[in-house]
Every structure is written in structure tokens, then in C-alpha cells.
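Good morning N.,

You mentioned wanting to compare the apo and holo forms, so I went ahead and generated the holo version with nickel (II) ion. This is what I fed in:
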Amino acid sequence: MLFDTHAHMDDRAFDTDREQLLSSLPGQGLALVMNPGCSLESSRNAVKLANTYDYIYAAVGSHPDVADEVNEEALEEYRRLVRENPKVKAIGEIGLDYHYEDIPREIQLRAFRMQMELAKELNLPAIVHEREAHDDGMKVVHEFPEVTGVFHCYSGSAEMARQLVDRGWYIGFTGVLTFKNARKAIEVASSIPIERIVLETDCPYMSPDPFRGRRNDPGKIYRMAEKLAEIRGMSVEEIHAITTENGKKLYKI
Ligand code: NI
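and this is what came out, ligand included:
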């Protein structure tokens, strides 16, 4: 049984068949799904899904793409969602994305720090999206030694991954692991302790091979498990058991 530790089932890509797809997942070997929020609105929808399906859990937070919506009022709503819904298990996804600079870096950094502070206050793990912002990402991690969580869709170096692991963080791998040019991700996945690795689809994006270019969904996470088993020289069953356990520890489920 597998744990998809990062799936956006509230995304509009699933509007036509969400219920059908979600009902089919337990039959496809999925034990658990974490649905992080990307904005205030998406966080509310993630909580609704978690309250509808036993095996779905939620996180609340604003993605760097909407960092300008993060203010005291937004934090108060996230606080309330956490307080009123025991299935909210993390703050995320939050972080930094310097690939697109539609939102200025200072605003992204401010929103990231405010939400890390919230994770600290509520004693919850953080789900961090960090793209082309390795130095600033690590700087903020060092500012909040009390907060751990997961660097999802990990794109940093093996050295940075080791630093995160030493500080108690988990590293999340997507379908990128299955791509032909995945040398860097494979290097990281082969070098850090297996107890710190979690698997995710990041659906509807990041479909693994051989589904690239098509809509992704949690039912495709078995491909990441197959690839990780190959990289680590372990059986698929061992990978299923270990990564599911890791995900449960990460989110305290
Ligand atoms: Ni995501």
C-alpha cells in the first residue's frame, strides 16, 4: 500500500471526474493521500476533501505564486482551519519559486517566513516548495530550527539534501525520478537514508514515465516506487512499506 504525500485533488483538472477517481484509489493500492492547499481557496477545498474521504489528509497554506495573499487575516483563517479540522496535518505548500518572478522575491520571503512562524506556533510540519531558490530556502530553514517537514519535488543537490536530513527534514520525490534525464534526482535518492524519503505525485502535474504529458493522479505513484526500488536495490514491497511509514511519521498520522 502506498502513500501519495503530495496530491492536488482539489485542482480543476479533476473537476470532471474527481469523485470517480477518488473512489477508485483504495482499489489501486493507495492507503493515504496528503492534499496540500496552494491558496486560501484551495486550502478550504483540501479540508473539505479530507473531511469527505477517510484516506485523504489536508494541509493549509499559500504557495509562493500567491505569496501576496498572505497577511494576518489569512494566517488567522489557516489557524482556524487547523483548530477545527483534526485531519489538517501540515502547513503547506509554502516556500519560494524564483523560476517565475511574477511575485517579487521579498514578498515570497515574507510570506514564507510568516507561514514557517505559523508552523512553529501550531507545532505542525511544513510542506516546502523550493525552486531555483536553494540559498534563500536553506537560510529560512536555518532561521526556524524548531520546524521540520518535507522539501517536496526535491530539486536541490545531494549535499543540501544531507543538510536537510540532518536537521530532521524529509525529501519528497515525484515522477521526475522516472525521467531519462533524472541523474540529479537519482543521485539524491540513492545517497540519503531511506527512512527520510517520501513519494508523491504532485498531481495533476509531473506525470511519471510512461505517462509524461498526460494528467497525473495518485494511481500512478506505483511508478515512483518501482524506480526507487531499482535505485536502492530493494523490493517494491519493501519500498511501499518503508515510504508509507515515512509519510505517516512526517505528518504524524
Ligand atoms: Ni504541489
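The chain has one domain: 2-251.

Happy to go through it together on a call whenever suits you.

Best,
F.
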